[in-house]
């Protein structure tokens, strides 16, 4: 019994001890003469953990920048915590990062629901919520209510529009079935698809939403197949996208598949049944390291060397993982923004810099893309290309298309 | 939500899927019942034990073993593991309060889950089962070979166990030890080891269930959690001390849930578990022993 | 008897003093963390009444916390009849709603005992999160509800974290006193009588059904209050804020901490807090052991540690540390005689 009591006392004291290693409040939290602290909450465990690699890619890039002297002599300390794609845990992580670690800004947290859950508390506390890893339109559009927030990746609604327009132009007698995640992420894609189809919106013959905490979307796909559609939109995330491809293969269904950008990583696409995957269409804004097109590209070479040298626990597969590239692209923009914000770094200053971007040289995104923001247009990435999957790789086709809302 | 119309072909496919799910639940439920009958313990760790052994199978296959070569090895490991767990963890608390025993199995579940994350990581992975995913024509309905295989393997195992319990001396000893330990001791049955044997068999059942279901749902440390719940429901439905009840309960539950999810729009996939549990609760209130079980007698 | 009473009151006062004093010596974020510990403490208090005193096992108390949490979230964000409610007033309402839910569960629970009750309440814990997902227009689905941050009322000069802390522990102390008064008196003795022998209790005039159902209701009330405070502290609610595993942790912390020990309850609450919110620190502590060098971001270790702790304590507790050694090395037959 005494043993137990002692154990508990230690647990409590240890909790106090680690927690009390607290911060002295700085003039601008998270900024000292030698350091800038950034925080993020991403899925490192659970079914969405592949996407968490964006943080690891960013981490490697920040270390590279630090090695070259940092930003105005300040090194970037990037702390990212695991939330398992759970918004409640994202809230916990964010509160901890802001209050205990006293970060300067939250950067590139992943997940639509996750970012929505913390948006209010960050804005109320006037902490910048920068370059969120979510394409939900609200992050770029609702700046009047949430001036401290800005998105990054191309908005999902516009992605849907692009798919819709493509179907109208290229698929005869289209009958479209849609599997969508039942949150802003999936619903934005669906709404965009409807807009893109325009007069042909009736082509959507079946749509099924699923909750992100569902175990398995196979039943939903079975239902969709029964609608006899010849086009299948997979507006699903991570493992659900995998399950959808598996189900399509098992059911012997052969529609034209569109898979949304966030789930299109080569790492995922190459483990699903290839017969189902071949011919799938998606959009892309970054350079896919697994695509033969970029094998000799300078930007990808740089990506791989930075990842090898500064990344932690990097396996050979990771060098081909698009999530790492996306993370590095976001980090590049972050560093760019910090430089623009000047030597006298404040939270207001960094928001001003983030909303006045004209970035042309990002080596990790497609050539020709200009990352552009204004205070009233907070969508940094609005140019993409279409790509098609075949022979275990993505092959971009066509020119850069606009994915700008409004 | 646009729900597609009813077709007989699809109905037959849903029945097949329901029986296939039911076979998995039946296997796990039987494991739970065997353990409950012998040691009066609800093994909350049954699912994690099954997933753990499935991971071992996956590792073996990664090192070049084919599925059917790895299969008996995994079964042996599972059996030994089950026996060891009973001897080391359960036997010391056999007479302790219900709460204590519940906590021990819950602790075991946490431990195994954490170990799996540590050893194999949390991401899900493909598990290449022994059955191909192509479909064959059964009376005009395309049924997947995998579904048929799962049902055949599960039922064969259950049948084998049934024969074992009924017709072998060891099986008889096991049943005796479960039903009347004191008298069994008097006739020379080593009750302690019989109980451990029960746990070994249960672990084996769990391993098979895990290896059958992994190709369908992707292998990750949390794979069996929902399935275990359904297995609990099936076991309670059939009667916690009735092996036949567990099997029947499993099939019934599998069918009910699959059909409810597909054909009752309101239920869908979101409410299928709560509705199933509600139905079972109602059943329990009417028939406290479940379909086949004896009424739980409350000692005063 | 008098001495015991005096000691208990003294213990209470010491606790109150510690609570009042703590914020002066620790940082603001730690105050916040202790506030959360207080919320788990309230929930454990309720569960102790149910399991410790009336002997009913509930593996579903996270669901009652969620009921309280949703009450606060919906009332704060959507308001009632068009009026948004101040978060403070939602606390007692949340407790009451949860309490009613507890009564509703308590009635069928009468027919189930021991393991069956554990299973059904576990089923409740698992099923409840599905409701907000199904009726997502009302509950907000997985996207959830975002609340306004906690603010001290009437312009009190204190940080939000300190306000939350004093609010939580103030409520905790009141509820503790309430539970203590209840359990010292007739209800407490009645519950203990029921726990030890229902038939005997019934024959001495105690109606087991009433008391057991009330115990469920009261313990659910406590859980609801705890859930309400928790949602206020996070300014967010969705079905996973009170995950299934929390219901397990609550019972486990109770069993391990000791059903009737105040220190045990507080320590149990601290343990749950560490597991839920500081899991990576657990891994960091483990890394201090030689040989091990685990990635704190990997989720496996805290579960392993807790699992081992649970098993070890349960095995050791019934007979003490010596008993386990005896069992490991003694011959099997010697167990027969201790079995009676």
Outline:
The complex is a heterotrimer of chains A (406), B (300) and C (340). Chain A has helices spanning 2-20, 53-67, 87-99, 112-124, 138-141, 156-170, 184-197, 218-225, 238-251, 266-269, 274-277, 298-310, 322-341, 347-354; strands at residues 35-42, 75-82, 105-107, 129-130, 176-181, 204-210, 231-235, 256-259, 281-284, 358-359, 371-372, 383-390, 393-402.
Structure overview:
The complex is a heterotrimer of chains A (406), B (300) and C (340). Chain A has helices spanning 2-20, 53-67, 87-99, 112-124, 138-141, 156-170, 184-197, 218-225, 238-251, 266-269, 274-277, 298-310, 322-341, 347-354; strands spanning 35-42, 75-82, 105-107, 129-130, 176-181, 204-210, 231-235, 256-259, 281-284, 358-359, 371-372, 383-390, 393-402. With 406 residues, chain A is α/β, with parallel strands linked by helices. In chain A, strand 7 (231-235), helix 9 and strand 8 form a beta-alpha-beta unit. The longest helix of chain A is centred in the C-terminal third of the chain and has 20 residues, at 322-341. Chain B has a single domain, classed as ABC transporter involved in vitamin B12 uptake, BtuC (Orthogonal Bundle), CATH 1.10.3470. The model of chain B has no long low-confidence stretch (mean pLDDT 85). Chain C has helices at 2-25, 28-53, 61-77, 87-109, 114-127, 130-134, 136-139, 160-184, 186-196, 198-203, 208-234, 244-257, 262-277, 279-286, 300-316, 320-329, 333-339; strands at 145-146, 236-237. A two-stranded antiparallel sheet of chain C has the order 1-2. The radius of gyration of chain C is 21 Å and the shape is globular. Chains in contact: A-B, A-C, B-C. Chains B and C meet through helix 4, helix 9 and helix 11 of B and helix 5, helix 6, helix 10, helix 12 and helix 15 of C.
């Amino acid at each position: 019994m005494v043993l137990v009591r002692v154990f508990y006392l230690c647990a409590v004291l240890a909790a106090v001890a680690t927690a009390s290693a607290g911060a002295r409040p700085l003039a601008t939290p998270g900024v000292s003469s030698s350091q800038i602290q950034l925080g993020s909450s991403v899925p490192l465990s659970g079914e969405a953990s592949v996407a968490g690699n964006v943080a690891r890619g960013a981490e490697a890039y920040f270390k590279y920048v630090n090695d070259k002297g940092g930003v105005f002599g300040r090194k970037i300390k990037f702390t990212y915590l695991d939330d398992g794609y759970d918004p409640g845990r994202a809230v916990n992580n964010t509160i901890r990062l802001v209050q205990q670690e006293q970060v300067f800004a939250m950067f590139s947290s992943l997940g639509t629901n996750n970012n929505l859950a913390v948006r209010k508390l960050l804005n109320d506390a006037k902490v910048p919520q920068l370059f969120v890893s979510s394409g939900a339109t609200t992050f770029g559009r609702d700046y009047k209510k949430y001036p401290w927030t800005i998105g990054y990746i191309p908005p999902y609604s516009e992605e849907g529009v692009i798919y819709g327009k493509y179907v109208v132009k290229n698929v005869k007698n289209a009958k479209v079935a849609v599997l969508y995640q039942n949150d802003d992420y999936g619903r934005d894609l669906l709404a965009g698809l409807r807009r893109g189809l325009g007069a042909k919106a009736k082509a959507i013959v079946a749509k099924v939403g699923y909750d992100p905490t569902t175990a398995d979307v196979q039943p939903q796909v079975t239902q969709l197949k029964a609608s006899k559609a010849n086009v299948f939109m997979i507006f699903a995330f991570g493992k659900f996208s995998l399950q959808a491809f598996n189900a399509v293969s098992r059911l012997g269904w052969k529609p034209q598949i569109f898979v949304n950008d966030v789930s299109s990583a080569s790492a995922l696409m190459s483990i699903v049944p290839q017969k189902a995957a071949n011919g799938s269409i998606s959009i892309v804004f970054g350079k896919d390291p697994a695509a033969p097109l970029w094998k000799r590209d300078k930007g990808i070479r740089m990506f791989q060397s930075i990842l090898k040298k500064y990344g932690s626990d990097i396996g050979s597969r990771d060098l081909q993982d698009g999530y790492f590239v996306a993370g590095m692209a976001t980090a590049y923009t972050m560093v760019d923004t910090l430089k623009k914000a000047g030597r006298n770094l404040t939270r207001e200053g960094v928001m001003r810099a983030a909303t006045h971007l004209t970035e042309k040289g990002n080596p990790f995104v497609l050539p020709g893309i200009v990352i552009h923001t204004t205070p009233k247009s907070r969508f940094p990435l609005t140019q993409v290309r279409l790509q098609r999957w075949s022979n275990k790789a993505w092959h971009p086709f066509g020119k850069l298309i606009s994915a700008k809302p409004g | 939500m646009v729900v597609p119309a009813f077709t007989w072909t699809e109905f037959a496919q849903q029945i097949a899927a329901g029986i296939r799910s039911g076979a998995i639940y039946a296997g796990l439920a039987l494991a739970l019942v065997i353990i409950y009958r012998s040691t009066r313990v609800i093994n909350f760790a049954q699912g994690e034990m099954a997933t753990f052994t499935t991971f071992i199978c996956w590792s073996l296959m990664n090192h070049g073993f084919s599925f059917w070569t790895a299969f008996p090895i995994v079964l042996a490991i599972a059996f030994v593991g089950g026996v060891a767990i009973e001897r080391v963890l359960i036997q010391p608390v056999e007479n302790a309060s219900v709460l204590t025993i519940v906590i021990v199995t819950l602790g075991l579940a946490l431990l195994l889950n954490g170990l799996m994350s540590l050893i194999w990581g949390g991401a899900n992975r493909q598990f290449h089962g022994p059955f191909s995913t192509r479909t064959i024509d059964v009376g005009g309905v395309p049924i997947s070979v995998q579904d048929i295989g799962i049902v055949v393997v599960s039922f064969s195992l259950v049948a084998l166990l049934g024969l074992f319990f009924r017709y072998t001396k060891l099986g008889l000893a096991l049943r005796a030890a479960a039903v009347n330990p004191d008298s069994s001791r008097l006739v020379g049955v080593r009750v302690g080891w019989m109980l451990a044997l029960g746990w070994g068999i249960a672990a084996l059942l769990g391993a098979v269930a895990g290896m059958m279901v992994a190709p369908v749902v992707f292998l990750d440390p949390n794979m069996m959690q929902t399935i275990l719940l359904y297995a609990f429901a099936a076991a309670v439905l059939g009667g916690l001390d009735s092996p036949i009840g567990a099997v029947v309960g499993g099939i019934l539950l599998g069918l009910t849930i699959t059909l409810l999810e597909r054909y009752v729009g309101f239920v869908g996939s979101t409410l299928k578990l709560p509705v199933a549990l509600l139905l079972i609760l109602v059943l329990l209130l009417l028939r406290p022993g479940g379909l086949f079980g004896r009424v739980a007698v409350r000692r005063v | 008897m008098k001495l015991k009473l005096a000691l208990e009151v003294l213990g209470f006062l010491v606790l109150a003093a510690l609570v009042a004093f703590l914020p002066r010596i620790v940082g603001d974020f730690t105050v916040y963390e202790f506030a959360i510990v207080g919320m788990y403490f309230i929930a454990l208090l309720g569960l102790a009444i149910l399991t410790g005193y009336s002997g009913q096992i509930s593996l579903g108390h996270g669901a009652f916390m969620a009921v309280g949490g949703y009450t606060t979230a919906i009332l704060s964000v959507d308001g009632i009849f068009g009026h948004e409610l101040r978060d403070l007033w939602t606390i007692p309402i949340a407790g009451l709603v949860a309490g009613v839910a507890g009564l509703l569960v308590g009635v069928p629970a009468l027919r189930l005992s021991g393991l069956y009750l554990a299973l059904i309440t576990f089923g409740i814990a698992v099923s409840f999160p599905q409701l907000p997902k199904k009726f997502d227009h009302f509950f907000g689905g997985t996207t959830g509800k975002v609340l306004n941050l906690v603010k001290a009322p009437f312009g009190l000069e204190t940080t939000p974290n300190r306000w939350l802390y004093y609010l939580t522990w103030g409520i905790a102390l009141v509820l503790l006193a309430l539970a203590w008064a209840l359990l010292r008196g007739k209800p407490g003795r009645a519950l203990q009588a029921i726990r030890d022998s229902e038939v005997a209790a019934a024959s001495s005039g105690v109606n087991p059904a009433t008391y057991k159902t009330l115990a469920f209701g009261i313990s659910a009330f406590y859980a609801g209050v705890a859930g309400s405070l928790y949602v206020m502290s996070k300014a967010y609610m969705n079905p996973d804020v009170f995950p299934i595993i929390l219901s397990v942790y609550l019972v486990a912390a109770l069993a391990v901490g000791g059903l009737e020990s105040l220190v045990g309850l507080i320590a149990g609450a601290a343990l749950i807090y560490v597991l839920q919110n500081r899991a990576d620190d657990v891994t960091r502590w483990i890394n201090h052991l030689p040989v091990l060098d685990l990635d704190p971001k990997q989720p496996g270790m805290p579960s392993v540690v807790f699992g081992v702790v649970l098993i070890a304590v349960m095995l050791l507790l019934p007979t003490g540390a010596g008993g386990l050694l005896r069992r490991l090395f003694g011959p099997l037959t010697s167990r027969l005689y201790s079995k009676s």
